[in-house]
Amino acid sequence: MLASLSADGEVQNYVDGSWQKPAGRDSQPVTNPATGERLATIPFSDATDLDAAVDAANEAYNDWRNTAVEDRIQPLFRLKSLLEEHIGELAELLVREHGKTRAEARGELRRGIENVEVACGMPRLQQAGTLANAAPDIDESAVREPLGTFVGITPFNFPAMISLWFLPHAVASGNAFILKPSEQDPLVTQRIFELVDQAGFPDGVVQLLNGGPDTVNEILAHPGIVGVSFVGSTPVARHIYETAAANGKRVQAQGGAKNHVIVTESTDLSYAAEKTVSSACACAGERCLSNDVVVVEDSVYDAFADEMVAKMRDQTVGYGLDDGVDIGAIISADHEETIRRYIQSGVDEGAKLLVDGRDVAVDGYEDGNFVGPSLFGEVSPEMTIVREEHFGPIVGLVRVEDFDEAVDVVNRSDFGNAASLFTDSGHKASRFKCEVEAGNLGVNVGTAAPMAFFAFGGRKDSFFGDLHAQGSDLVNFYTDKMSYIERWPDQS
Ligand code: NAD
To answer: Is residue 306 domain-shared with residue 426, that is, in the same domain?
Structure first.
């Protein structure tokens, strides 16, 4: 399947410029979630694999940090071209191991490539400022210096894009970088690393280390690593933040989410429903920006609920490689079971099930993990499906009296990743931007996903740290500012 898999179909590490079999004893299968077909086996790395990767990274860093920035970005330009050349094949692999649709996979890759493009601007991004005559006869300047070896630890839901959030900026700014991708869908990352290999980075600058939670905990304790970029669920993000910081590392940790939408009386209800359904059902709801709680002003609640029912029923569930599919497979049978439990919790807690996604059957894919779209009406903010991240295609509608109550419901959430507002009122839009406590805000936009040149926000239990992913935040995260203060008296 992939040239870099071992002869017995195992995922490998990419360490010091070559493919190596992880030495750990644990492993797990990589399975196509739509068909049940076993695609590969992923062995987990142990402490000896990690030591080898960190040694190679720190060795490579000594030269790489002193390599001209113009030369550091050349492999990234080549990587961008290679990713574009292979985007169709990468998207197909992503569908096969993750379950999302082909269009979603291409969109994810495009978003990842955007981050490579932005990092190619490092000659400008890394500049820090100079001031002549900052004090009498004194010039001052600042530089942003790289720091050493960073590790990126990524989740299953966007295995290609999130790996590419971190790798390009880390290495373009002069660091060495090790990626520990999700063990649930490691193949697309392995294929990207075949392209990294072709792009011509010096050995050890960019490495791939496969593994699970134990590998992560070894990373957090390793003295040769200066910082960690993490994306995943909230309990793990909190653990990463606390442990990495306690071990003296820089850390940015993005966690889970519940993203609310407010629908006001002055809006196009059909448009708001279309954008909400697409946000909530894309990638089968396995998205940290999925808008899955909709807070609706009472005067338009019934009409909006009708629009939502029609549009949710219109979603087609199936294999992501087949045409006309809106909702692909769920990553694992366990996660499918979790989503089904959340639907049952909505029923048990008294919400009104308007569309029930539990009875879905996909002809020809009887071994796949599928759940159809589910819509609940008359949901209250205390219910489990509003408070907890279910990571499935489930939407709950909350009825509120007015805009004040809507903002209150949104801000009661423990999470603060994203929120959207649908309105024709400029006044409500400005209040939304000032009053709602979330890091990515959309107005008349279904999914508030910032482009690669803006930081990807997140607050409360959705983010631990201060500098976010993407944009100038990442440049600051991967570098340290140093100031030079110079005086050159006349010695003649
Ligand atoms: P996860 O937390 O289970 O796993 C993420 C990574 O952490 C993986 O690489 C995994 O190997 C590792 N890990 C898992 N358990 C661990 C443990 N106990 N100790 C140490 N490491 C551990 O997350 P997931 O299920 O792969 O991804 C889905 C989650 O990611 C959702 O909560 C989603 O909201 C979140 N996410 C957040 C963002 C964001 O920008 N805020 C973006 C994408 C996904």
So the answer is: yes
Q: pLDDT tens digits for 106-157?
A: 999 999 999 999 999 999 999 999 999 999 999 999 999 999 999 999 999 9
Ligand 1 neighbour 331 (Cβ under 6 A): no
**Do 392 and 421 belong together in one domain?**
yes
Q: What are phi and psi of 280, to 5 degrees?
A: -80, -30
Task: Tell me: do 225 and 269 sit in the same domain.
Answer: no
Interface predicted TM-score (ipTM) of this complex, two decimals:
0.99
Q: Which CATH number covers residue 116?
A: 3.40.605.10
H helices within 16-101, ranges in order? 47-64, 69-72, 74-85, 87-98
Same domain, 237 and 319: no
Annotated active-site residue in 120, 281, 288, 434: 288
Angle of CA points 209, 213, 214, to nearest 5°:
80
Q: Is the pTM of this model over 0.80?
A: yes
Ligand 1 atom with minimal separation from the 211 CA:
11
The whole-angstrom separation of Cα 175 and Cα 62 is 9
288 is catalytic: yes
Distance 233 CA to ligand 1 centre (A): 4
Ligand 1 touching residue 251 (CB < 6 A): no
Of all protein residues, the one whose alpha carbon is nearest to atom 21 of ligand 1 is: 213
Instruction: Give a yes or no: residue 490 inside a domain.
Output: no
**Residue 235, in any domain of the structure:** yes
- Model confidence over 58-108: pLDDT tens digits? 999 999 999 999 999 999 999 999 999 999 999 999 999 999 999 999 999
- 222: containing domain: 13-255+462-483
Residue 429: which of 266, 294, 257, 259 has the closest Cα? 266
In short, whether 232's Cβ falls inside 6 Å of ligand 1 is yes
Amino acid at 187: L
